[in-house]
Amino acid sequence: MDRTRVIDPRDLELEEWSQGSLYGGLDVRLGALLGLRNLGIAYSEVAPGKSGCPFHNHHVEDELFVILEGEGTYRIGHERIPVRAGHVLGAPAGGPDTAHQLINTGSVPLRYLSISTKAATEICEYPDSGKFLAKTIDPETGKYRFNQMVSEGDSIDYWHGEPGA
C-alpha cells in the first residue's frame, strides 16, 4: 500500500465536531495517512474557551502534545499549567495523577499535534465523571472489536452470560 510520507495538516479536510458548551474542535488523524501502525497522530484546532476532550488518563498508552499555535491551560493531575506555542507536553500512562486535558484559554484557536503509542487494548479513566472506557482494536483493520464505556458502580457478575455458569 503506497502511503504519503509528508503531510501538511493545513492541506487536509478537518472534521468539525462539538459536544455541549465546553467541548469541540476540528481534527484530522494523521497516523494512518502516513502509514504508521503503532503510533497515533492527530492535528487539532480548538476554539477559545473550548477543550478537545474530557479530563482523562490512559492506563496503557503514553501521549505527547506539541503546541503549534495559541495558548491554553494544561490540566494534569491536580495541576493547571499555562502552555503556549512551542511547548511539548507529556501525559504518561498511569492513574488519576496523569489525567490530562488541554483547554484553550487564549483568544485565537489552539493548534496542536497529539502523538500517542497505540495499544491494541486500553483502559481510559475519566476522574471528573467516574467513567471508564475499555477498548480493544483489531491491529489489522484498526477497527474496534470492543469499545465500552461504564460508570463506577455499574458492574455485572464475572460469570454473567457465560454458558453453563
From TrEMBL:
Looking at the record, the residues that make up the Cupin type-2 domain are 44-115
Q: Which GO terms describe its molecular function?
A: metal ion binding
Pfam families according to UniProt? Cupin_2
* CDD domains linked to this entry: cupin_SPO2919-like
Q: Which UniProt keywords apply?
A: Metal-binding
InterPro entries recorded: Cupin_2, GPI/OXD, RmlC-like_jellyroll, RmlC_Cupin_sf
Is Ribonucleoprotein there in the keyword field? Answer: no
Q: What is this protein called?
A: Putative cupin superfamily protein
Task: State the taxonomy lineage.
Answer: Bacteria, Pseudomonadati, Pseudomonadota, Alphaproteobacteria, Hyphomicrobiales
